[in-house]
Amino acid sequence: MSTPQNSHPRAQSSYGHAPTRSLLVGDVDFVYRELGPDDGVPLILLMHLAGNLDNWDPRVVDGLAARRRVITFDNRGVGGSGGSTPDTIEAMARDAAMFIQALGLGTVDLLGLSMGGFVAQVVAAEHPHLVRRVILAGTGPAGGHGIDRVPALTVQATLTGALSRQDPKLSLFFTRSSGGRRAGRAFLRRLKERTDNRDKDISLTSFRAQLRAIKRWGRQGPSDLSHISHPVLVANGENDRMVPSENTLDLAARLPRSELVPLYPDAGHGGIFQYHAEFVVSALEFLESPA
Asked: Is the Cβ–Cβ distance between 269 and 173 less than 8 Å?
């Protein structure tokens, strides 16, 4: 594993202008962006199904980076990162741990969204000394209710979106109420704010590999979450149709040191984007609270 190729001054202004960098991990280049202050425990963001660097809500990243060093990266084989995308969550977690270690980081905090939340759970369980605190959003445990149906739901929404010329995230991440649809459209506009050096869309091959990984996660036996002893903040919308919200409540009940953000009203899978201001406050309070 290597250290970052060059010593760059960190972008402080906004995620929309953060440079995209490359880090050689083993024989694979991983692309990443970072911003925020130099001090404190870095916060690593773990992405959802089919997501690349440009799919993080800039309001969430900028809000967190106002007080924390925040690092986003593309999974193996996704966007600008090289290699072949793994088809198991466990392999993705190994990649994440290797990436963190290649950055020369001893201890980090994790924010995992959806599939990234699956990965975060495995990293915390298998590399406990690498992790200080964990935030799990819109996600669930292995074998959680309805998780094995995420691939079919996603494919259906993608096909419907292509026919209607509508981004599938609008129906997958947000409720169908007028408020939910307004929030979804606002979110999609924010994702387009970055105009330079945008990331590559996920390939069909990588997308299929991630779908297989999620289906396997959903069909595994129930996780033994008692082994995750880190403080964990759990958040979601009250009407998540991708990873049903009952999984959020299940995580909060089974994790030994969990804290539940009250489920965001009239919100779904993208609850932390719809309620980005409230989520940032909760996340920072959690990350900065005494051990």
From this structure: yes
pLDDT tens digits, 16-65: 999 999 999 999 999 999 999 998 999 999 999 999 999 999 999 999 99
- At 263, which amino acid appears? L
- Beta strand 131-137 with 108-113: parallel, antiparallel or unpaired? parallel
What DSSP letter does each residue of 113-170 carry, written as one string? Answer: ETHHHHHHHHHHHH-GGGEEEEEEES---TT-TTGGGHHHHHHHHHHHHHHHT--THH
Whether pLDDT at 161 is above 90: no
Does the predicted TM-score (pTM) go above 0.90?
A: yes
Going by C-beta distance under 8 Å and a sequence separation of 6 or more, which residues neighbour residue 135? 109, 110, 111, 112, 120, 232, 233, 234, 235, 283, 286, 287
Collapsed DSSP state (helix, strand, coil) of residue 61: helix
Measured CA to CA, the distance from residue 134 to residue 121 in angstroms comes to: 8
Contact 217, 117 (CB under 8 A): no
pLDDT of residue 12: 54
Q: How many CB atoms lie within 10 A of CB 163?
A: 8
